[in-house]
Amino acid sequence: xxxxxxxxxxxxxxxxxxxxxxxxxxxxxxxxxxxxxxxxxxxxxxxxxxxxxxxxxxxxxxxxxxxxxxxxxxxxxxxxxxxxxxxxxxxxxxxxxxxxxxxxxxxxxxxxxxxxxx
Length: 118
Description:
- With 118 residues, the protein is mainly β.
- 8% of the residues lie in helices and 32% in strands.
- The chain has a single domain (22-114), classed as Adenine-n6-DNA-methyltransferase TaqI, Chain A, domain 2.
- The chain contains one helix and eight strands; from the N terminus they run ββββββββα.
- The strands form three sheets. Strands 1-8-5-6 form a four-stranded antiparallel sheet, with helices on one face. The chain has a two-stranded antiparallel sheet with strand order 2-3.
- A hairpin with a 6-residue loop joins strand 2 and strand 3.
């Protein structure tokens, strides 16, 4: 038996997280790097809230999709790993919540890698 998967707009599987914070607590926050060509998002050290100069941030949640505003053309997209939960995200990145009733996060991760560079 063959099953045809429906093609749906991304807005049915992803919802942009538009919550921002401006006051950081005096604690350490994970930092994140979003690799080119669909290689994903990885934690890359820590930064103390008192050392951060930018005023507008988001806090990443495990399992969210992150897209670089500047490097999206190079496939700079990933899924936030557990190690980057609570990472500070600047306004040059976009975070999206995954509707897990419509798509599996692992499948979305596969698609991000499959289409890299194409």
